[in-house]
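On clarity, I found the account of how folds are encoded harder to follow than it need be. What matters is that the chain and its backbone geometry are given together, residue for residue. For the editor and my fellow referees, an illustration may be useful. For illustration, here is how one protein appears when written out as sequence plus C-alpha cells:

___
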Amino acid sequence: MTAAVFFKLLAILATVALGWLAGRLRWLGAPQADPARVLSAAAFYIFVPALLFRTTARLDLAALPWRMLVAYFLPILALMLAVHAWQRRRRRHAPALPVAAPAVRAIAVGFGNNVQMGIPMATAVFGEAGLGLHLMVVSVHALVLLSLSTTLVELDLAHDKARREGGGSLVRTLATTVRNTVIHPVVLPVLAGLAWNAAGLGLPALADEVLQLLGSAVVPLCLVLIGLSLAYYGVQGGLLAPAAIAAAKLLLVPALVLASARFGFGLGGLPLAVMVMAAAVPVGANALIFAQRYAAQQAEATAAIVLSTLGYMASAALWLGVLGRLGLLPQ
C-alpha cells in the first residue's frame, strides 16, 4: 500500500473516530434524540440529491467507456440481486427482520468507497491515466447502485403493504413501487439531472456553485455519521454478518469484476487493473445512509463499513499482488 493511500485511510478512520467521540460525549444530544438519524436525513434529502443532480446534469454520456462500465457493473448488480433474493428467502424464516433488510444487505455488499479510498488508490498506483478511468466509474457508481437498491426496497415495501392489507393486485403493487421509486430523494434528482443533460442546458454558475457546495458535504458527513452510529448503536447481533459482508466486498466483488472484464468482455491492461482496484475498495458510507433511511440493519452496516475499511489494508495489497502477477501494474 502506498503512503498516499495509507494516510488517506488514517484520515478516514480519524474522522470516523471523531464522530464516535461526538456520540460518546453527547455533543449532538442523547441517543434518544436520535441525532444520527437527523444527520442521515439531511444527507439523504439535501446533500446526496445535490451531488447526484449535479453529476448527472454535467455528465458527458458520449465520452463514457460503456464496454468497460458494463463489464464492471454487470457482476456487481448480479451479486446484489442474488444477495437480495437470498436474504428475502431467509427472511421468511426470520420475520423479525425489517422488510428493508435484504436490500440494505445487498447495497452493503455492492456499494464501494470509490471516492475517499478509490481516488487516492487510482492516483497513486495508476497515475493520471488510471485516475481518469476510475472517475468514469465514479461518475455513474451511485446512480446505478443506489437506483437498483431503491427499486428493490420499494418493491419489498409495496409487496409487504399489500400482504398486510389482505392482498392486492400485481398492477397496484407495481404502480406503488414505480411511484415510490421515482418520487424518491435518490432517483428523482438522477432523472432530473439526466433530463437537464439531454436538453443541453448548462448549469448556471450560481446553481453549479451551490450544488457543488452541498455535494461536498456528503463525504465528511457520512464519515462522522459512521462514528455516531458506532457510539449510539454499538455492534448489535455480533460480528458474523458484518464480517461476511466485508469479506464479500473486499474479496468476492473484485474477483467477479476481474472474471467479467477479462473473460467475459476481453478487457486487459490499464482498464482491467483500474476496474479490479475500484471493485476492491471497502463498503461505502452510502450503505449506512440507505440503512438509516429505511430503519434497517444500521448497526450491521456501520460495522461492515468499519471492518472492511480496516481489512482494506491487507486486501488492497493482495489485489495489487494479483495484478502484478498478471503483468497489469505500471512499471
Summary: Residues 118-164 form the longest helix (47 residues).
